[in-house]
Amino acid sequence: MENISKFCTCKNIACPLHPTKHNKGCSPCVSKNLRLKELPNCFFQLIEKAETRSGDSFEDFAKLIIRNE
Description:
Layout lengths: L26 H10 L4 H4 L13 H10 L2
């Protein structure tokens, strides 16, 4: 697990882009999410009941924020 930065909160260890699967840190995940216009899983870890979301889009993130106000 030496590839995980000190701030990593991602619990999706099954993901092939998880830092434990390679030596490139968060870059592959961030790159994929930028390309797809989504947010990385770790951002969702900051919100209660994030596991109820339907996806990783900006809209999905905003809906969770509004619901948790």
